[in-house]
Design goal:
The structure is a homodimer of 374-residue chains.
Chain A: H1 15-22, H2 26-34, H3 41-54, H4 60-67, E1 72-79, E2 83-84, E3 87-88, H5 96-111, E4 115-122, H6 128-136, E5 141-144, H7 151-160, E6 163-166, E7 175-179, H8 181-195, E8 200-204, H9 211-227, E9 230-232, H10 243-255, E10 263-266, H11 269-281, E11 291-293, E12 310-313, H12 315-329, E13 344-347, E14 349-352
Parallel strand pairs in A: 1-4, 1-5, 5-6, 6-7, 7-13, 8-9, 8-10, 10-11
Antiparallel strand pairs in A: 2-3, 12-14
Chain A binds a DNA duplex (30 and 30 nucleotides) through helix 2 and helix 4.
DNA sequence: GCCGCATCGGTAAGCGCTTACCAGCCACAC
DNA sequence: GTGTGGCTGGTAAGCGCTTACCGATGCGGC
């Protein structure tokens, strides 16, 4: 029967093959593998041996169809589809954040035997809804990185499948996970104003309408008001969460002759990288003349010159929490009351003081001690 | 009928619902949706309207089972599962490379209507084989980032499902995709030796046994021999592809009093970052006293001080090519001759000269002009 | 006006698995 | 020795979809 044992691809063995080899019915095989019922020791052993011998692993689709559980969570990331034929217009820099979140999800997912089904949706995809719905039918639950759906679409979707948003807004049928923007930004603002005495501060925002950027800006504005500092803001202070955007904004400010504030607070680390770059080009010293801060504390933040002061969110934990949340919503059947739905989960943040705000350099310890406490 | 339109999750509509609403049979619905046969205009329209009305999207598992095509490609990445309960021991730095490759895959995958099923396998997972096989049964094909399987396992796997490895070795039943390590390293080596006249060079290797690291080291050694340069190598020169490893190695060299070579060639950019860090700690100027180079040209390479000279591989294209390769192997049936199998695809690399090797700083243009030709 | 052919659409089988249900079997007790 | 209860394991019914197969239907030609 196994005549085709050549280099040709053989069909993977099915449960029928196992049953035949073990001399039992397919039901028994299934029961042994899923720990249902009380198979006799004898039966169990024969099945396991056959499984071993054939290298049998059940087909995912068949199992999913029958068990009504795919053990897959879909993840939607909104990204520029820069790849064109054989060249990338630019190897995009805004990489780390969503990917690190995904990693956090992966780790937890694996513990539950789930996998992540990743789909990236083009920034200007006209029919994003269809793509997301299609992904939903391949998964047991969905995690959305960015706002890709209209509120109506989101509502319709979340009625069919558990949905968790990241840095979005909870709805009656979806949960949301984000980090504590407000707390982090307040701590940072107080540090700049109270500890360093900076009284003019510019806020380089992120994408227009980004909830994260808005929340951070709001907290900063309040602290500035409370601390008697002046906040520079407005159209000229719009970044894009990307290094290029940050650099561009600062470049414009310098060239146009508008004065720079004593401190520049960026909506994220990526744009802070761009700001540092632009300032360096013009010979403006950081933090001597202008202090710069980021948000996220991505790994490279500590390798920049000067080392970047930032607000750390445990990025992977963000992903881990998002996954745990969808997971808790999965498989509860249609009349699950959705205890996790409508919830808004905020993860703690922590201010990381480094050189770029005016604090002394971080550590004397060599980098080799990365793993050491701190 | 839709009495349960409350906040309760409703079961997604099935093809039966659509058929009922449209007043046709499920076969017609399927035919309309899949463009089989010649449905009458009338029929077609009624079906489409019903689909629209119900928001029907076919279930992935059912479709996969029936059509014998899941439209999913599994991706295996080997990573430390650092996440522990509520803290990450360290937000790992070796992030960018595999994730950027995955992005390249995503983009192309989406064009073919495929999604990526990501599973990360712990570095010291004892039974990685089982995990990978399980993933295989959820996918139509597999892309392996790292060596996780024994040759026998790989062979068994590739007999059941198309497999492409990245930076591995092709086998009669698998294809491999990698970048042209040899060409890139030769160009770099010649530049250092011929253009800059460096005659002592240290090669900071990557993981033990990494094919990439070995190929790069070999090419460097040959060029050094040809150019009359002395290559520092050996146990002390082993990194780990990570910043910490690179820093540690250099730290040891300095502390132990062994002299440093005139140029340090790192197996990748991450370890070069560590090397720069360690040298900076000891006040050794780069490239004045010691030149440093990386490999990969990850995005941050240009933001380091000094900007890092590196060998660019189009990382996303690596992923894109890997995907196209598995894709071409999928669905050809068991007697497909496997035209892509056993192939070894090498993508071109390009030397990027920046400050750290001794060349003048890259550009006067502000970063904002990222997209400009280089 | 009737028959033959081409076309459309419905019926049903089957993808590989899980599991409800029930028949058969064994061991024990009377 | 026979009756009964408790397990075990087999049979079969789906899960939601695709598609081979064939009957029904409509048109043109004679």
């Amino acid at each position: 029967m196994n005549a085709e044992a050549g280099t040709t691809a053989a069909q993977p063995p099915t449960i029928y093959d196992v049953a035949r080899v073990a001399g039992v019915s397919i039901a028994s095989v299934s029961r042994v593998l899923n720990g249902q019922g009380n198979p006799r020791a004898d039966t169990k052993e024969r099945v396991l041996q056959a499984v071993e011998e054939l290298g049998f692993v059940p087909d995912g689709a068949a199992r999913a169809l029958s068990a009504r559980l795919k053990e897959v969570v879909g993840v939607v990331v909104r990204r520029p589809q820069a790849y064109s034929a054989s060249m990338f217009t630019d190897e995009d820099e805004n990489l780390q954040f969503p990917d690190m979140i995904n990693r956090g999800m992966e780790i937890v997912a694996q513990r539950h035997g789930f996998d992540l089904l990743i789909r990236s949706v083009d920034l200007d995809e006209p029919d994003a809804g269809r793509l997301v719905f299609a992904l939903a039918r391949k998964s047991d639950g969905l995690i959305l990185h960015d706002r890709v759906l209209s509120p109506e679409q989101l509502d319709a979707l979340s009625r069919q499948v558990p949905v968790v948003t990241l840095a979005g807004q909870p709805t009656p049928t979806t949960a949301n996970v984000q980090s504590d923007n407000e707390g982090g930004m307040r701590a940072l603002a107080r540090h700049l104003i109270a500890d360093h005495g900076y009284l003019t501060i510019g806020y380089l925002a992120g994408h227009e309408g980004s909830p994260d950027s808005l929340a951070r800006g709001r907290a900063l504005a309040e602290e500035a008001a409370a601390g008697g500092a002046i906040l520079f803001t407005g159209e000229a202070w719009r970044g894009s969460y990307q290094a290029a955007g940050g650099a561009q904004a600062i470049e414009h400010l310098i060239v146009s002759g508008s004065g720079l504030p004593r401190a520049i607070v960026c909506a994220n680390d990526q744009s802070a990288i761009g700001v540092l770059h632009a300032l360096a080009l013009h010979g403006i010293s950081v933090p001597g003349q202008v202090a710069v801060t980021g948000f996220d504390d991505i790994p490279v933040a500590r390798h920049l010159r000067p080392q970047l002061t930032s607000v750390r969110q445990s990025i992977q934990e963000l992903g881990a929490t998002a996954f745990e949340t969808v997971y808790s919503m999965i498989g509860r059947g249609p009349d699950f009351d959705g205890s996790a739905r409508g919830r808004d989960i905020a993860l703690p943040t922590r201010l990381i003081r480094r050189e770029s705000c005016g604090c002394p350099p971080e550590s004397i310890r060599p980098l080799a001690g990365t793993g050491s406490g701190g």
